[in-house]
Request: fold
Amino acid sequence: MKNKLHVKNGDTVMVLSGKDRGKKGKILATIPDERKVVVEGVNVAKKHKKPRRVGEEGGIISIETPIWASKVMKVCPKCGKPSRTGVKVLENGEKVKYCKKCNEVND
Reply:
């Protein structure tokens, strides 16, 4: 069975807990099998990179590492607040996501 996440690539999210609590960022990658996401500017780690080819630079680089998807909440583009999302079925039978705080459709 394939795992589904409540967020997708490109969504703006807010971190709910941990050392980066309260930070907002865009989702760069999702890892549904591990139920993790990579958020821009969150959970940054230092990595020591060795030059592998001629002309390539080595050094210490900063890289975003994955965090649990349950620790992030999608930010509504209309009201700008972190909120849960629900699914509405329109008259034509189409399913759309909506913000549970402002009831605006945001898909």
Notes: The radius of gyration is 17 Å. Strands lie at 12-15, 24-31, 36-39, 44-49, 59-64, 67-68, 72-74, 85-89, 95-99.
